[in-house]
Structure formats: structure tokens, C-alpha cells
Design goal:
Elements (H helix, E strand, L loop, with lengths): L27 E5 L6 E6 L2 E4 H6 L19 H4 L3 H15 L4 H4 L2 H7 E3 L4 E3 L7 E4 L3 H11 L16 E3 L5 E3 L4 E2 L2 E4 L8 E4 L3 E2 L2 E7 L18 E8 L2 E2 H7 L13 E3 L4 E2 H4 L3 E2 L19 E2 L2 E7 L6 E7 L7 H9 L10 E3 L14 H4 L7 E2 L5 E2 L7 E10 L2 E13 L3
Parallel strand pairs: 6-22, 8-16, 9-26
Antiparallel strand pairs: 1-2, 1-5, 2-3, 3-4, 6-7, 10-11, 12-15, 13-14, 13-22, 14-16, 14-17, 18-19, 20-21, 20-25, 23-24, 25-26
Bound molecules: calcium ion.
Length: about 425
Amino acid sequence: MSKANDPSLRSWVEVAAGSDFPIQNLPFGIFKTQSSSPRVGVAIGDQVLDLAILNKLGYLDDLKIDNSVFTNQYLNDFIALGKQTTNALRERISHLLNVNTSDLRDNKEARVKVLQYISNVQMQMPVKVGDYTDFYSSIDHATNVGTMFRDPNNALLPNWKHLPVGYHGRASSITISGTNFHRPKGQTKPNENEPPVFGPCRLLDFELETAFIIGKSTQLGESITTDNADEHIFGMVLFNDWSARDIQTWEYVPLGPFLAKNFASTVSPWVVTLEALEPFRVPGYKQDPKVLSYLEYSGDKNIDIHLDVFIQPEGGEETLVSHSNYKFMYWTMEQQLAHHTVNGCNMNIGDMLASGTISGPTPDSFGSMLEITWRGTKPVKMKDGSERKFINDNDSVIIRGYCEKNGVRIGFGESRSKALPAL
Ligand code: CA
């Protein structure tokens, strides 16, 4: 386990109790200010460490990283340096920010140049996403949806426990937290015996998900195994897979999701490295029947990540509508990646692979309004007294996530976006 994960580490940078970004986390992101172009930063407490300036000032000299990697609008080139370098950098930053290391701590002139408050910067999409895949790997979610739309006695389709089901989505509409979007319009069929109609989506929903980012490419024809999958996973973000349920219901047969999904997806800005998440690994879901050998894995491959979803009406208070956990996933990231590449499909740095809606076993842990309100039959009470079956115009949906153990909290920050009225 990395030295940077030691729970006893403290930083000379102030980190408030309950902060998502203690010295044990050190997630990477892209930020810009009014006066500077986009660059690579690391979150510490409520501040961001500017790696371009840190490198320029000589604090990273022996790592020999070309500064163009840091003065960049995406993390892709940085990630492409490989884990040996990016992990060494994480260790170096951990050392520099350590309360007992004086180099930067006692150099006020440098400190002012390399640190600024996150509230004063604008976060950007962390990676250029080439390809995006969405899985369907929560057994409680798949069971809920199967129960609602097909057959409660055979909720899971025959393939579900044998392979991590997924589809290829669209990368162009994946946006950074804070990017609002207009309620999509499209074709729906509200009445079974009448022709379809065109208009604004009436059943707008969120999907609570996480996504992992590919950190090491493969060649066409090459497969990743569950054993070496972690070498290919750079880190994770929170992911809201916005969904138009009425469009989805009409369009998805027989090829799966299309326009019900590609109008907006919202990611959190800080990429939490797989290394920072290692202390929070837990045993995977017990898989029965036994999976095919290429999907077998050893060790604890699930992760204990608390996930909360809030709805905030315009000008109103946030209401918690779901408290779920990544550990409820049936298929692990390692299995998803092994399955995705078993046919020789090549992966590129920056590709994003989302989990699928993460629902837990109880109604308060369901990961979409479809499930929480059971197709709108059990509306959710908001703090302002109003009710929600799905998402209203000008509602913001906020996803937050964090791991917590031994007094260390490794957080993801948030994914936040608002559904504006249809154009
Ligand atoms: Ca999804």
C-alpha cells in the first residue's frame, strides 16, 4: 500500500474536518482562472495545488515531467506518463504537503504562487473522453427494472449473471459538474393505442453512477485480464447518467438506449486515483452461478464508497433522495474491463466506463427516481413540501460520494447539474 495512504499523515495546508480532500486523497483535475489557461491541479482541503507552477519552480525536477503535460486542458497526456510516474508524483506531492516537510511550507513566496482556493477557480472536464461505455452492473437496479417492466419472477434476463451487460454511449455530451442542460425533446408514445407524439420529455430522471477512466491503452486484439485490470484504471469520478424515461421506453427496442441517454451526463471534476481508493476495498458480491474463467478474480475488488443523491429545487433546499453505496455492485470494474476487451476491443487513455445505476437493496438506496418512486406511484416528499415523481424544470441534481475509514475521508466532491426548461 502506498505511503501516501497512511492515515496518520497531516498537511500544513489547512484541511477542515469532513473535507473530501485530505492529504491521503490528492485527486487530479483540470482548472483555470480568469487570468490563466487550463492546467493540471491537485485538490488539498479547499485549495488547489497548481502542478504547472510547482514544476516550473523546480519542486518536481527529478521526476523529469515536461511542463506541457501540466499546462494542458485535459489530463490525458499526464495519465499517459504511466502509473510509475503518476504514482511517484502523488508520493512527491504527499511529501511536499506533509506538515513535517519545510521546503514549500516555509517558502511563502512559492506557496502563494502554487496554491489557490477552489472557490476562485473554474473546474473543467478532467479528460478528453474518446469512447464512453455504460454498464448495467447493479443487481438491485437490474432486478427493480426487470420487476417493473417485465416479470417479477424472472426480473433478470438469462445473460445477466453471466456477463456484465453494457452499451456503447456517446462521449460528446458528457459534461463537467455545473453544466446545465435543457430538458430533451423527442418521440414518445404515451398512449398504447395511439401513434407516437413529439415534445419535451415528461419523465426526466437521474441515474446514480460512478465511472472509471482508462489509464493505459491497449492495442486492437489485446485483452485485459481481471488480474492486470487495475494497471489500466487511472481513477474514478461520480457520474450522473441523465435519462429520459418516456423516450427510452419507446425507442430502446431492439438495440438499447439511444436519444434517452445522450443529451447530458454529468461528471465530478476531481479524478480520485485507484491508489487512493485501495484502503477501502471490500469483498465483491458473491456471484452465483460461477462465472466463466476469464471473469474470475481474486482478492477484495469491490470498494466501499458512500453515494448520496440530492434534489434541489430552484432557490430551495437540498432534499436527500438516495443513500447508496458502490459496494452493492454485482460486477467489479476489473470484470467489466476484462469482459469489454475479451474480444480484442482496444481501450484508449481517457475512455470512460460507467457503472450503471447503483442501487442498494432497500428503497432508500435506489439510484434513480424510476425506482425510488416506483414508476411515479410513490412520490418523494421534498423539504419545501412539494412532491417529485421525476425531475422538474429548474431542479438541480447533486451526487456526492466518499469513502471513510480510520478517520480518513476520501471524497469525490460533487456532480451537480440543473435541468432547464425545454427549448
Ligand atoms: Ca446508465
